[in-house]
Design brief:
By secondary structure, the protein is mainly α. Helix content is 69%, strand content 4%. It has a three-stranded antiparallel β-sheet. Strand 2 and strand 3 form a beta hairpin. The chain is elongated, with a radius of gyration of 25 Å.
Length: 412
Amino acid sequence: MEILQGFADAVVGIFEGSGLSTLNWQNYVMIGISIVLLYLAIKKQYEPLLLLPIAFGMLLVNLYPSIMAPPTTQLLTEAQCAAQNVAVSGHAKTVIDGVTYIENPTYGGLLYYLYQGVKLGIYPPLIFLGIGCMTDFGPLISNPKSLILGAAAQIGIFITFTGAIFLGFTEAEAGAIGIIGGADGPTAIYVTTKLAPHLLGSIAIAAYSYMALVPIIQPPIMKALTTKKERSVVMEQLRPVSKLEKIMFPVIVVIIIAIFLPDAAPLVGMLMLGNLFKESGVVERLSKTAQNELMNIITIFLGTTVGATASGQNFLTFDTIKIIVLGLLAFCMGTAFGVLFGKIMYKATGGKVNPLIGSAGVSAVPMAARVSQKVGQAENPGNFLLMHAMGPNVAGVIGSAVAAGVLLNVVG
């Protein structure tokens, strides 16, 4: 009989410790959402390098919430230590109201510790280091006017910032929401961890979802704002850029940004360091490591831990719906303003600039530039806009980091 009772107690203990008794409906909804995101990452290949780890991190935290639990410290009397077989020696002691307590620390979950790289603002700049190693600023240097288009595409950030405040968000939360319009995941994560860490899951998922949906969201906006004649413009070939120009560019940019906008220095500094690795030609090993092994490792840690912030209790709120809608609005406005400024340049140059390249001012590199190429070639099969669109595209990377610096300076 005692054996049966012990077996029954063991079964009850297993059940009480399982997810069947600890998870709620919110967790199950998030598990379903994570599976949908995994499908989009694997089957549809929507930004899989980040969407897949984000989705799996979301799955893990809703199946096993303790994986993101912070460390805690129990205060136990010596009698309690003896009852729980906790060693007294080696532990710190605290005296409260004349009673001596033994401090018994417990460890946090695995992803809690990995998440500190996000929380402390370490992972996003390291991602920018790798991006810098893979980025060719030649098209931007060759056509500096591209900076205007990259800057224009950031206007949606600040309009959305204002709109979010009217919808009841604080200035800090509005700044984190607005940065989604830059279509730059690492920048969105960096700004959110500084301004509104409690919104990180919602903002990160919105940012990367819209980055993945660039080929779907942008073309209708581009076609609605341009004429067939404008979309068919064939642009002149870009001038060659010297090695000296490519080496000087990252140094000059980081000096200017760090002096006038210090809050953007961590992101822009790492971006330009990576680019200098690439263009200098003297540290090939460092360049390859930064853009391959290091970036791959950081991407795994960043994606998984950001996804793990999207627990059901934090994610399934009315604020999340507002964030997703505002993020889409920010992204659409960024695309629209880029195209509209492209139209202005088309008029100012007598029809030499194809307005479609303005849509690449959002910093989804190189996907946005490829969309400009695809839409332009659909109108004129002999049109090759990719390199022209890369100018605004890489300008958008710098622009989103600068916008982040502005927001951190104003509301941080």
